[in-house]
């Protein structure tokens, strides 16, 4: 069945107390509305029309795709008025599914169930809430058929006792909208044009109306305040954590785990507390991630251990490596097997061969490092001349002492040893020892400067 989606996202979001449009606040690192667009794409909507009010340019900048269309709603006169603004943008797809830009966790499977139930009539996604206050209530007749939706403010005391609420998500027959929407009146307590009033119009026109209950109430929650956003963030993180636990991943504390991308794990992966995962991450069998690490777009080979407080971004790490604590791997880092990168070592755009080590306080950038290389503490590749970046090549079996500068472009050939404190400013032959000419003096009469004595 062909269908399209309209996302209502023009509401002000006053209770966020923010200059940012509400739907651009982030959940799991992505704008709320991006989650909704992803759900619409997952069920293959033929077009997704976003009704925006505030910050239209920002909303458009946050989304992209040929399947998107936009409609401005100004001023915001209610949900029915919002959908009316989208009318000129709608396609011929016979079914229009209405979603909210601030209800981010709705699942594709739920939307598919709703579409299937609707056929080409009206289907409303409802939920049973212990505390239904604030929501529109679902009215049903004795036979259980839906007869309407009444807003809290317009409801009688008896209607307010109904626990089945309108989530706002519904499907509508596109061809009818041109007649129904202009008929909506704002003669209600909020002086708004309620989309929910189309239910009565549908029944009058003998269009079938069904109410379908959501499987899980977290997927229908909206975000009106920062507290609700924080709650939904935790609900989402708990779902992600639960999936990983099911797959056999150890999360030392699933309540202290943050997924802001997609994480694929092999067997017996161990993740300690307070780690953040962004982008696409792949952890092979037996990988262990220490506490307080941030990983973004990283692949890690089997048996590798990442020690606490490491920040890894855009790195490919081989098997049986040991990284950190306090390591920083930047984009373009490629480590072969059994590489050791220790504390306060930064690696950028560099390949490091098998069994090589840089254990303390170093910067390795724009470099090719061979196998079995040892890079001593405080070694710096001086890759930047103020205008251009240059490469450093360190061949196999080189041993670099502490506090060495390698002024790129430069090559240290196979098997050489570079003495501590050396500045390597030209290519070296293989083997032997490289040191700068230097002297050491002793000045016995030299006096250390003293502070004047206090009076
Ligand atoms: C609406 C429903 C209510 C339902 C509730 C679920 C109506 C009349 N009421 O209530 O039955 O229980 O959602 O949360 O539909 N929006 C616009 N333009 C507007 C007004 C709203 O785009 O002029 C958008 C908002 O950005 C939001 C959505 O519509 O995404 C819902 O708006 P909100 O004000 O939260 O709806 P309620 O009136 O609380
Ligand atoms: Ca709301």
Structure in words:
This protein has 8 helices and 38 strands. With 455 residues, the chain is an alpha/beta fold. The longest helix is centred in the middle third of the chain and has 22 residues, at 226-247. It is elongated. The protein binds uridine-diphosphate-N-acetylglucosamine (UD1) and calcium ion. Calcium ion is lined by residues 222, 224.
How would you summarize this macromolecular structure in one to three sentences?
The protein is 17% helix and 32% strand.
List the helices and strands and how they pair.
Blueprint: E1 3-9, E2 26-27, E3 30-31, H1 32-42, E4 48-52, H2 56-62, E5 68-72, H3 79-86, E6 95-100, H4 108-118, E7 122-128, E8 137-140, E9 146-150, H5 157-160, E10 164-173, H6 174-180, H7 198-204, E11 209-213, H8 226-247, E12 250-251, E13 257-265, E14 270-271, E15 275-283, E16 288-289, E17 294-300, E18 305-306, E19 311-313, E20 315-317, E21 322-323, E22 328-329, E23 333-335, E24 340-343, E25 346-348, E26 351-352, E27 357-360, E28 363-365, E29 367-369, E30 374-375, E31 380-382, E32 392-394, E33 399-400, E34 405-407, E35 410-412, E36 417-418, E37 423-424, E38 433-434
Parallel strand pairs: 1-4, 1-6, 4-5, 7-11, 12-14, 13-15, 14-16, 15-17, 16-18, 17-19, 17-20, 18-21, 19-22, 20-23, 21-24, 22-25, 23-26, 24-27, 25-28, 26-29, 27-30, 29-32, 30-33, 31-34, 32-35, 33-36, 34-37, 36-38
Antiparallel strand pairs: 2-3, 6-10, 7-10, 8-9
Bound molecules: uridine-diphosphate-N-acetylglucosamine (UD1) and calcium ion.
């Amino acid at each position: 069945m062909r269908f399209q989606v309209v996302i209502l996202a023009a509401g002000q979001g006053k209770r966020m107390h923010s200059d940012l449009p509400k739907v651009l606040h982030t959940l799991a690192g992505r704008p709320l509305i991006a989650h909704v667009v992803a759900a619409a794409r997952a069920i293959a909507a033929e077009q997704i029309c976003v009704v925006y009010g505030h910050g239209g340019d920002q909303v458009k900048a946050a989304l992209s795709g040929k399947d998107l269309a936009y409609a401005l709603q100004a001023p915001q006169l209610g949900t029915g008025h919002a959908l009316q603004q989208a009318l000129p943008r709608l396609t011929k797809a016979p079914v229009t599914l209405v979603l909210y830009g601030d209800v981010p966790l709705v699942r594709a499977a739920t939307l598919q169930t709703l579409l299937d139930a609707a056929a080409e009539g009206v289907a409303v996604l409802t939920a049973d809430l212990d505390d239904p206050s604030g929501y529109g209530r679902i009215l049903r007749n004795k036979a259980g058929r839906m007869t309407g939706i009444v807003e809290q403010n317009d409801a009688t005391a008896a209607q307010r006792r109904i626990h089945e609420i309108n989530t706002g998500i519904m499907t509508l027959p596109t061809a009818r909208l041109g007649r129904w929407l202009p008929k909506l009146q704002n003669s209600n307590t909020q002086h708004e044009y309620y989309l929910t009033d189309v239910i009565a119009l549908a029944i009058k026109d003998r269009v079938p109306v069904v109410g379908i209950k959501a499987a899980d109430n977290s997927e229908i929650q909206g975000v009106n305040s920062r507290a609700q956003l924080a709650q939904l963030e935790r609900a989402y993180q708990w779902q992600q954590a639960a999936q990983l636990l099911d797959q056999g991943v150890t999360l030392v504390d699933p309540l202290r785990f943050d997924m802001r991308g997609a994480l694929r794990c092999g067997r017996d992966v161990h993740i300690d507390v307070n780690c953040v995962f962004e982008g696409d991450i792949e952890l092979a069998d037996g990988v262990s991630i220490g506490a307080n690490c941030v990983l973004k777009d990283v692949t890690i080979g089997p048996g590798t251990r990442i020690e606490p407080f490491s920040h890894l971004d855009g790195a490919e790490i081989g098997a049986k490596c040991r990284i950190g604590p306090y390591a920083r791997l930047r984009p373009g880092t490629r480590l072969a097997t059994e590489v050791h990168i220790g504390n306060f070592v930064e690696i950028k755009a560099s390949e490091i061969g098998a069994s090589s080590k840089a254990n303390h306080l170093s910067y390795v950038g724009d470099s090719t490092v061979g196998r079995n290389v040892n890079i001593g503490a405080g070694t710096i590749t001086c890759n930047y001349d103020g205008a251009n970046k240059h490469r450093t090549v360190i061949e196999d079996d080189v041993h670099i002492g502490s506090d060495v500068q390698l002024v790129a472009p430069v090559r240290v050939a196979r098997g050489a040893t570079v003495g501590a404190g050396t500045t390597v400013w030209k290519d070296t032959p293989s083997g032997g020892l490289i040191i700068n000419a230097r002297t050491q003096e002793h000045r016995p009469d030299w006096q250390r400067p003293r502070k004047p004595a206090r009076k």
